[in-house]
Amino acid sequence: MTAVDNLAAQRLFLASGSTRDGKVRELYFREGRWWDCYMFTILEHEWRARAHLTLREALALLRRQEQEPRAFRPAVA
Fold first, then answer.
1. At what angle do helices 7-15 and 55-67 cross, to 10 degrees?
2. Residue partners of 37: CB distance under 8 A and separation at least 6
3. Close Cβ partners of 1 (under 8 Å, ≥ 6 residues apart)
4. Averaged over 2-31, what is the pLDDT?
């Protein structure tokens, strides 16, 4: 988990192959206010597929993925 405003940590989670699976609202109280967090997960086979990458290679892969156009996926009701 990481705070929603911690973009550096989020990029590291995504570069590792993790996916953002949810948001926990008002998880902890600090500096006079409640903070939300994002939860990231990775399955073992996903981790093993990227375990050989250095951090630099993983971040470069993430940058390429961010630049690819995303297909629209309608929400399932």
1. 100
2. 1, 2, 3, 4, 23, 24, 27, 28
3. 24, 27, 37, 38, 39, 40
4. 93
Tell which residue, 67, 68, 62, 66, has the closest CA to residue 14.
Answer: 62
Structure token digits, residue 73 = 């996926």
In this predicted model, what pLDDT tens digit does every residue of 18-73 receive, in sequence order? 999 999 999 999 999 999 999 999 999 998 888 888 888 888 888 888 888 766 66
Q: How far is CA 28 from CA 4, 37, 39, 68, in A?
A: 12, 9, 14, 35
Type of residue at 63 = R
Q: What pLDDT, on the 0 to 100 scale, is given for residue 43?
A: 94
Looking at residue 31, what is its pLDDT? 92
Q: Residue 47 to residues 20, 29, 51: CA-CA distances in angstroms? A: 14, 32, 6
